[in-house]
Amino acid sequence: MINGNKETIAQLANEGKRLDGRSLTEFRQPIEIETDISWTAEGSAKVRIGETVIMAGVKLSIEKPYNDTPNEGGIMINAELTPLSSEEYESGPPGMKSIELARVTDRGIREAKAIDMKKLCITPGEKAWFVIVDIITINDAGNLFDAAGLAVLTALKAARFPVVDPETGAIDYKQKTKVSLPLSKEPLPITVYKINGKLVVDPTNEEENASEARLTVASDSKGTISAMQKGGEDSLTIDEISEMVDLATEKSAFLREQINKVLKK
Amino acid sequence: MAYTERLDKRKFDELRPMEAKIGVVKNAKGSASFKSGKTWAIAAVYGPREIYPKFLANPTKGILRCHYTMMPFSGSGERIRPGKSRRAQEISMVMEKALLPVVDLTDFPNSVVDVFVELPQTDAGTRCAAISAASMALAHAGIPMKDLVSSIAVGQVDGTVLADLSYGEESYPDVEVSDIPVAMLHNSKQISLLQMDGEISKKDLLKALEMAKGATEKVYELQVKALKEHYSKE
């Protein structure tokens, strides 16, 4: 990325301005959300924020519950920063950036208890539904955390259980029921970046590189916080954190509205 | 009982509905999306750029490298674990061979042109969709090319020669089935991808390859249309 822009971005932020003309707390346009983009997934979504494009797909399987939670199913979220989506990414095992993306997205959903794990249990100690969500980047133009959170929540909301043969217990992945996941909350992560001491949302790649610190805050429609992750090299004051949380919950509500607009159609 | 009516009522030489689009990955030098029925391939081209590890470099011309990946949720059964399977590696290799005859990389010694293909959903014919998408993405990236490569599968079900087999046809139970993915260079009508699974007589093989000419021609027309539409927009 172009480092020469760092100073310009910092200077502009100080004046409350950005390279692309947005205000500091404004998301890029368009924000596009599409569901059911993959017939092979039990639930799927494609999300676009500006030039950032991400897909998420949900697969369901029946497994033996973990020994310490015999009455519960489970969830796992994985992220692939594909070399298709940016020249910065290489093929091979996941790097730190994709592990962090997956884990922060995972915590936002898991810790909110958004999915009732007990309802995923079929036979205690023997069989339960497990939910695996894969995040796939198509074009990384910045703010992957928020785009991934948006894609994952949309895919989970759109997911439908596959048909299970009552005799053999085998899953027929080619047929879906009308039953959706036991999803009781809608947590969405929003990442607030600090650039030259100013708080900024939905950064481009260049703005990410020019930032000193970031804080991801996952919150639901009641404003309850379910996960946080501080990143970047600089530290944050408690006052800054307070302001970042307010901004994140506000923007989380804004993105949740976008999902529900699409899913009501 | 011969196979006289296709599962999805198509004519024997009729392709599934196709859709092609250019410029779907902004970060890439060139990119394209190709849909054939419920199979969807997205291709992005990066480079020519420096090759790592360096010992792979060729001082006389650039190298074409393809990377075929099915998204973990793109299979019709269970989730596919991420990471390169033997199948994906073989397909990546035959993709390179399918595209190389039209790509001229003599101006780019010691460099690599990377083609990444991701499939969000699949229903047979994935390598063909991947090659057709990759060919458009290479053209969009401005890589010197002599021709476009258009790819489709032909084959037979119970003695009936068909174009563009669906998964239901590929896995048709209890009868002889063969699936022949083909890539054709448009101008010379030469074949740069040829594989086959199943059994077929020589007579039917030649009939199927003849059918591939007309079928790849339809793919070619769509590829050209998508490229033209893209450049008329700019």
> Biggest interface in this structure?
A-B, 34 and 34 residues
- The total of beta strands of chain B comes to 10
Strand proportion of chain B, as a percent range, falls in 25-35%
Point out poorly predicted stretches of chain B: none
Q: Which geometry of chain A do the CA atoms define?
A: elongated
Structural class of chain A: alpha+beta
* Strand line-up of the largest beta sheet of chain B: 1-2-3-5-4
Q: Determine the mean pLDDT of chain A.
A: 96
Oligomer: heterodimer
Mean pLDDT of chain B: 96
CATH class of chain A: Alpha Beta
Number of helices of chain A: 5
From the spread of the alpha carbons, the general shape of chain B counts as globular
Q: Element order, helices and strands of chain B?
A: EEEEHEHEEHEEEH
CATH architecture of chain B: 2-Layer Sandwich
Quote the distance from N terminus to C terminus of chain B. Answer: 54 Å
User: Helical residue percent of chain B?
Assistant: 25-40%
**How many domains in all of chain A?**
1
Topology of this structure?
The complex is a heterodimer of chains A (265) and B (234).
Chain A: H1 4-14, E1 31-35, E2 43-49, E3 52-63, E4 74-80, H2 96-110, E5 121-123, E6 127-139, H3 144-158, E7 160-164, E8 171-180, E9 188-195, E10 198-201, H4 205-209, E11 213-219, E12 225-232, H5 238-264
Parallel strand pairs in A: 4-6
Antiparallel strand pairs in A: 1-2, 2-3, 3-6, 5-6, 7-8, 9-10, 9-11, 11-12
Helix pairs in contact in A: 2-3, 3-5
Chain B: E1 18-22, E2 30-36, E3 39-50, E4 63-70, H1 86-99, E5 111-121, H2 126-140, E6 149-157, E7 160-163, H3 167-170, E8 177-185, E9 191-194, E10 197-198, H4 202-233
Parallel strand pairs in B: 4-5
Antiparallel strand pairs in B: 1-2, 2-3, 3-5, 6-7, 6-8, 8-9, 8-10
Please describe what this structure looks like.
The complex is a heterodimer of chains A (265) and B (234). The mean pLDDT of chain A is 96. Helices cover 28% and strands 34% of the residues of chain A. Chain A has five helices and twelve strands. Chain B has a single domain, classed as 2-Layer Sandwich (Ribosomal Protein S5, domain 2). In chain B, 28% of the residues lie in helices and 30% in strands. In chain B, helix 1 packs across helix 2 and helix 2 packs parallel to helix 4. Chains A and B meet through strand 3 and strand 6 of A and strand 3 and strand 5 of B.
